[in-house]
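Hello,

Our lab assistant flagged a job as stuck in the queue for most of the afternoon. It eventually completed. Since we weren't sure the result was trustworthy after the delay, we are filing this so someone can double-check. Below is the sequence as submitted and the structure that was eventually returned. Let us know if re-running is recommended.
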Amino acid sequence: MREFMAARVAAAVSGRPPARGITGALRVAIFRRIWAAGLISNLGLMIQSVGSAWTMTQLAASPELVALVQTALMMPQMIFSLASGAIADMYDRRVVALAGVSLSLTGAMLLALASVTGVLVPSLLLALCFVIGSGMSLMGPALQTAIREQVPREVLPAAIALGSIGYSLARSFGPAVGGAIVALMGLHATFAINVLFYLPLVVILALWKRLRVPPRLPPEGIGRAMVSGVRYILHSPPARVPLSRAFVTATAGGAMAALMPLVSRDLLGGGPQTFGILLGVVGLGALVSGLALAWLRERFGSETLVRVSAVCSGSAYVLVGVSHSLPLTVAALFIVGSLTMMTFSLFNIEIQVSSPRWVVGRSVAAFQAAAAGGTGIGAVVWGLVAQRYGPQVALIGSGLCLIGCVAFGLWLKMPAARDASSIAEAAIPTDPEVKLALTARSGPVIVEIEYRIDPDQARLFYGTMQQMQSIRQRNGAYGWSISRDIADPALWTERFHCPTWLDYLHQRARSTQADRVIELAVWNLHSGPEPVRIRRMLERPFGSVRWKEGAPDTGGDDPLSLSTFPGVSP
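-- returned structure --
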């Protein structure tokens, strides 16, 4: 409920009631300001990337070094995305986003200074581009997941789509603007403009009065948080399916982004102006589809739209591959731009609206990594095909693979829309009896739950427990098993463990309302005269416990009061 409360407060501050769709999202003042500032910062990044690439051509004649400029900017998204998502989930997202944009601003200022003073060399240029990319990688998940705290739930899909529109516009028009700035004002100006374009976002994030709700528990370590995020995705179809399809779609369609210059030069016989026109058309298509996305999703559903997009965009790829006419190619690229943006926005929306608050940053970061990784792999694969057989064959092959993604979707269908309350945090159950002085590091903690089930209900119970297995595992439990007593077939035992006491507290606190429905269904099948029996045990292997004679038994660590975790039912 915390996101919804914050969104309602934001809507109230805007002074107007929320409307639906794109208009409704833009009427929320804080979202509108952050979105506009983010669009400006992304535009500055695209302008700077053009300046960096042209600068590298003057510093070194090697094509490999020129290509490494984009690699240095984008590689941090692959390397640090999961860690950035974990940090966004663990700490104040406003502060994390502000730290990320400040890191990028620092890198941009150093790059501008090095360019003006003439000390810029290839290695320094690549290093500073990596710093800028690292800041953007840190900022991205925090800024995207903070949308849930800025707008009401009913306009969340439209707000997420607007984020994709902003990035698509910057990516499409930024290079053309950057090229014009290089021609009119010189290379130094691209770096200086990037610095200036970061400032609005810094100011707005610094002034944002975010509704801060103190966390119930201390945060996990970064390593444990990353593992928790991966486990959630692996055991959660609403997150796993869009991620898998985003990766496959990005790989299949990676030819267009990689081969657009060759389309302009070899297939159309044009130059830089033609290339700019093609990029602009792609951006225009993204804008048009983004404006209609919320209505289309509500009317047709995500699965239908993704399938139609795969067939139509794949066909447009084939058309671009065989066309030598600029008007025909422009029409096909308009379709590509609109449907590509719509497809990946749908994946992004489904991931964000289906992920509970504790893991949404990691889910978004995983989506970014899947999309970027698929695009990178696809670019390499289709680039090799184009090198050997020509760009026409590569584009046609990429288009046919996109059409083939429909078959992949028959195996992994997009999850059905979920009610907002289903991912809301559930109330933490009654406190267990604890007579050991546990610390956060005490563990492993073994949990055994005994159920007495009527043999006639055994099959129903077992099927429901399969759902329980996924819940336990995605929330942080390890080694889950269900067993049946061979001497007393009505007695069933569920068993799992958590590495530490703090991990167990996190696991208990992560249940959603939908999880509680499954748990209640299991408990209602219990038919014994006694209630369900739960045993929580501290595993203490030989040699792990050290104490002095007469000292209290602390479970192997320094004693720690349960009040260390205020508001938490251990």
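-- support follow-up --
The delay was a queue issue, not a problem with the job. The result is valid. The beta strands are 445-452, 478-484, 491-498, 533-538. Residues 29-59 form the longest helix (31 residues).
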